[in-house]
Amino acid sequence: KTRLACLTSGGDSAGMNAAVRAVVKMAIARGCEAYVVREGWEGLVRGNEESAGQHGVGETPLHSPPLAGGVPGSHTPSNQPKRGGFVATYGEGELLKEGEGEQTLRGRYIIRVGWDDVRGFASIGGTLIGTARCAAFREIEGRRTAALNLIRHGIDALVVCGGDGSLTGADKLRAEWPEHISALLERGDITQEQYNTYKNLKIVGLVGSIDNDMAGTDMTIGATTALHRICEAVDSISSTASSHSRAFVIEVMGRHCGWLALMAAIATGADYMFIPERPPTAADWQSSMCSVLQRHRDEGKRKTIVIIAEGAHDCNLNHITAAEVKDVLTERLGLDTRVTTLGHTQRGGNPVAYDRILATLQGAEAVEAVLSSTPETPSPVIGIQENKITRQPLMEAVAKTQEVAKRIEARDYEGALALRDPEFED
Ligand code: F6P
């Protein structure tokens, strides 16, 4: 029986919970045992502190006391709290309020879950099983400890939902797996029987990121929600901007990718925008911007909205900051200008319907990919292209994504966009 664990890693994004829910439910429906790993790779490196080393192959490190509804494949008995899974104990605190929860989960990162444990996940923002940016997992020893913890819990398949950094970690773990298990056997950390049983680790990636920066997929889980949050914020800012006839420079996230800024600018009818993939062609970007904005004012606009991606730069690759843009608008155009950095409001909040659906379809596909994978199959990442859920080799997608960043640095913007989206035409 496949023991499949799901974890979320890196920056959170709306829809990650829907992905976990889909993976858990699909895994159970397909006859697997389902687990979640709390706190991303960090949790896998830590393992279950109180029980480390106590579980042999085939034993289940179940919760003690058992979580309501936590028995795989079974539904919550009617005399138990309906929303009694570990999430209630961990994040939202229903059981916590009743005096459980923290006690149940302290020091436990790898948790077996049942059908009801993920009830209600689809509509909740963030990631209820926690995430972290894990330094230990970047080191080979950290990944070896993670491998040991997987084997101790009898887990032979992992679905990882995260951005390109998290998925690179996933691919590394799988590539190094033979080396890890040999070393663990040699060190006496695992038995020969465990070595034979866990020769292959199956890993499948799901792209959870607000940045929508992964090559080879049209949309990442959480990007649409973040875009929606940005649009709401820009709409709110627009009305006060109009009242005061002010200018606003609004900085949005996206790391090296301008997708959020570009789409927000289109959706809100912004006056001007800066994105890394299309930096201003003129060295004097200040004058080009001012002439456009002045024209809009001359045409009677009472507000000026400039959207700037956090990774924006000029044609010499010097970072353009929101503060710099503000100074230009104030000094050259005499506009009363404010800067708003939207920050983590973009990442938080409940997922929009699209992200729930995307995460659900992709989560289900991830389980199918696990079940059909062979030792020879490269780890896949689940994407969406032209409205169809796709699988492609994980490392290829990650390598392309990293190459996009390099091409932008080399000012090969066409090349970067063509790599990110093969259908791209200028
Ligand atoms: O990758 C997602 C993202 O939100 C980026 O857009 C942003 O640059 C970064 O993460 C912020 O990271 P943190 O939450 O660690 O500050």
UniProtKB/TrEMBL annotation:
Residues 1-426 are annotated as: N-terminal catalytic PFK domain 1. It comes from the Eukaryota. Substrate binds at residues 209-211, 246, 253-255, 310, 338, 344-347. Signal peptide: none annotated. Residues 3-54, 109-370 form the Phosphofructokinase domain. It is found in: Cytoplasm. Mg(2+) binds at residue 164. ATP binds at residues 11, 133-134, 163-166. The active site is at 211 (proton acceptor). Residues 49-86 are annotated as: Disordered. Belongs to the phosphofructokinase type A (PFKA) family. ATP-dependent PFK group I subfamily. Eukaryotic two domain clade 'E' sub-subfamily. Homotetramer. Catalyzes the phosphorylation of D-fructose 6-phosphate to fructose 1,6-bisphosphate by ATP, the first committing step of glycolysis. This is ATP-dependent 6-phosphofructokinase. It comes from Rhodotorula taiwanensis. The lineage of its organism: Eukaryota, Fungi, Dikarya, Basidiomycota, Pucciniomycotina. The chain holds residues 56 to 481 of 872 of the full protein.
